[in-house]
Amino acid sequence: MVLGFAALLGVFAAINQNSGFCTDTSLLTMELPVKEGFGTNPTFTLQASLPTVPDKLAIYSMSVPGVTAESAKNLATARLKISREAISKIQVPSTALGRLKVQAAPMTMTGAAKTTAAGLDTAKLQALDQVVDVGTAFSLATADSYVSVNKKSAAETVMLNVPSLTADRKAPLPSESVLKQKADAYAAENDLLPPGYKYAGTSYITKHTLNAEGQVEKVEKVTAIAKYTRDIDGLPVEGAGSTICVIEGDEGNPLGYTKVSRNIGAKIAASSVTAPGRLRTMAASEKTYELMSPEDAYKKLQERGMTSEIADVETATVDKMYLAYYEAEPDKQQDETEPVYVFEGTATGPSGSTEYKEYMYALKIKNAEAPFQMPSPTKATERKAGEKGVEGQKDPEARS
Amino acid sequence: MILFIMVTTDALAYSFGVSYDSTGGLGINYNSATNFANRMKADGWSQKFLWGNGDAWENDWKDATKGGGDKTYADAVDVAFWEGHGSPGCLCLFAPDDTCVSYDDAIWGDWNVEWILAHSCSVLDDSHIADWAFKALAKGGHGMCSHKTTVNACNAGDRMAQLLISGYTFRDAWFTQHLENQYSGCVARVLCTTATGNDKLWNHGGMGPDSGSGSVWGYYQCTK
Known about the structure:
Chain A is built from 7 helices and 19 strands. By secondary structure, chain A is of the alpha+beta class. The model of chain A is unreliable at 86-114 and 116-120 (pLDDT under 50).
């Protein structure tokens, strides 16, 4: 009983006594790619409505399945459609995890594959025996295909025909409805879409030819990218993750895909602009973090400026502002997802205008830190004596 | 008569250089730059330079005819990688001489470099993409990879090196890591000639000819 009371005191100690909001940040490990810039405090103009904030937004755990050389080999087997019987005796070489390994015989993508008498791609079969641990992922490359699985996120990249990825097309790409149809079929056949994913439109890789005056004189759609995304509790998921891209080439035929999709687990906490209150907090087992109001978020944006790799902007419009969840790029450990504010618009500086997308933590406690101090970019650091560079060799093929 | 030709190891070696900016509290750019360098070195490339933050001078990327030191740095290698801030028409490094490497500062490829990788926002925006082609790259350069929109800082260098070493073209490697690492709506671009669009690392498939007065320039664009 004494222990139980002590535990209850511990819970209470971690909760703000005045507001009832939780101040324990040990759960909140999600990181946004925010970076203080220089010359990135433009004058913002809000041209969007502030979003409506739901009463409560959950914070969810995230997890990924274990990734091993064997699981990467299994994925490659399935995606490259290699007979299981044919590869049953292939051994996966043991390599120390995390050690960078250079392939002894680099497998560059050079041309047509040879086949065995049984019609199986010998290059692909051999490649399965050379699943390489490249430190961050397991990968293999054959004459024309490539498979990799990231260790931190289990993100998959599968390319069935790499040389064709951005090759000139024999004919214009089909209509978007045909592209969607083929992408849906490929995704279903390969069981690519976890529950909740929906088609989110098609974007493209395009080829633009410049004339001698520097104007674009021709634009061609080369490759289609059919995207699938998911929501969490009705909010979109921003960032590199929660997106599956089916890549299509000639006639809309699939060339492969990229998939960044961690498992969304149980609710681990809540967030709200409304304080849960002391009585309710003491009785409740749920931790509740304070959400920034949209008004405060916009004020914070104006104080903080932009945090991408942009520089030298003087003005910026905010054309959209909304709440979302966030999932990071493949090579990032992410154990939870929480609400974020997203700002979209156009930033303008002396050298032009740029469309931007900015992220901000929606939890007040994550925004508590002061902006980083930026060094002056005009203040050079003396390089070490003796590290004076030696002029390089002129390229014999270069034309003067 | 027997003619002997002396070829130094410098002339044979493939080389790269990296400048990066990891100030402002985000070490991911340091990881991106150093991971790129480590993978390239493991693949047999020689590192000519790896300068970070206050040591990443704009002067290193500026043409020698304009008072810069690119014959020692950015134009002395085959692949030069900038990991840091950018704006339309500008790679934002540190002084000396100033903090902006523009298309008016650079003539890349007249000495050695083939490919420029700039993991930065908006350098290849519509407003100045032709300037990069015709002013900065047209005297021997092969191409440049960067973005039209803003881009999130991430470990792009690590992934880019992995894909290049696996045999991807510069274009396909840039776009593949872009689809993996960036947000929906983010736009990457690869500026190249009709003869260099399928360039790979020298030891993984090789490259087309240097650009010149007859080269036809264009760019590929990947919208996630």
